[in-house]
Specification:
The chain has 1 helix and no strands. The chain is an all-alpha fold.
Length: 73
Amino acid sequence: MRTKQWNVDRDTIERDNGQRRWDEAYQFLLQCMIENREKSLDEKCHEEEQEEQNGSGTLCPCLNHTATTGSDH
């Protein structure tokens, strides 16, 4: 079976507010990056706090049961 071949035509349309729209989109992306970086730093700090809190904790032995086909009802 032969696949259909598509033709795509593209035209540019100049807009009066194109530069302003581009500037707003760029500022939005920068703000998202800053918020993401701050969130990542906050998460990293929280993880370090968790490690400090758990660093002096005691270890408890446990058993790792293998998966079975039966149910545990």
